Amino acid sequence: MNSPALCNSKKLEGKVVIITGGASGIGEATARHFADHGAQVVVIADIQEEKGLEVASSIGSRCTFIKCNVTDEQQVRSLVESTVKTHGKLDIMFSNAGVLRMSGSEQNILDFDLEASDNLFAVNIRGMIACVKHAGRAMVECGVKGSIVCTSSVAASTDATISIDYVLSKQAVVGLVRCASRGLGKHGIRVNCVSPAAVGTPMMCDWMQTNEEGVEKAFESSCYLKGGALKSRNVADAVLFLASEDSQFVTGHNLVVDAGFRP
């Protein structure tokens, strides 16, 4: 939990927020952080219904859960429209839902299996576009000078010979943010992304077949900033900055949170 001094800053007081992928990991940490900072409503959207309901209940009456698969644009549209209908506006969209490499292969360029990457691209690219599109539309229609934050990755700033489907998908997020920030800037809407290094989230732990400590140890030697491991709450701090008025004139930016990670 955050310290009382930090919570009293209430940087998001009165704001209506949607967080996709909010049932666990970075999304959950951010939902709790936003609520601590006075958000009027935090809507958690996720395909993990049981976990999402548990998180929303633990946060309290200001937090609700809506089941949503971001690969289905109609579900994203309904998520945004129901939020606006119920709460009158949308101030912040944290488009965070994403997946790691889904295929069984290493996905190098010579053996790239397009079908094996369809689901990954559907979530990480198509889903991200749908969230930015419909959040942006809602903000424009409501006259809200809002903030849209997307989750990319340090992978977006590098190249690779394997797992290139994941790398490409995260590079696409950065491109989307840059384009969307230009298109929505005239409406006073800011669009940015956060690019974390590896964090010991449940998804990362499952993928690496280890626990949170195991993930942290695996990447510790590749980070030149010492003094602790990167946690979900550290990424949530960066998202809060991009979502709040602290970053009033920041748009089209990729905020890397990586403890100096160099693979």
Report what the structure shows.
It contains 9 helices and 7 strands. By secondary structure, it is an alpha/beta fold. α6 links the parallel β5 and β6 (190-196). 46% of the residues are buried. GO terms for molecular function: oxidoreductase activity, acting on the CH-OH group of donors, NAD or NADP as acceptor. InterPro entries: NAD(P)-bd_dom_sf, SDR_fam.
CATH topology: Rossmann fold
Helix content: 40-55%
Secondary-structure content class:
alpha/beta
CATH architecture: 3-Layer(aba) Sandwich
Order of helices and strands: HEHEHEHEHEHEHHHE
Sum up the overall morphology in one term. Answer: globular
Number of domains: 1
Family: Belongs to the short-chain dehydrogenases/reductases (SDR) family.
Pfam family, one: adh_short_C2
GO molecular function: oxidoreductase activity, acting on the CH-OH group of donors, NAD or NADP as acceptor
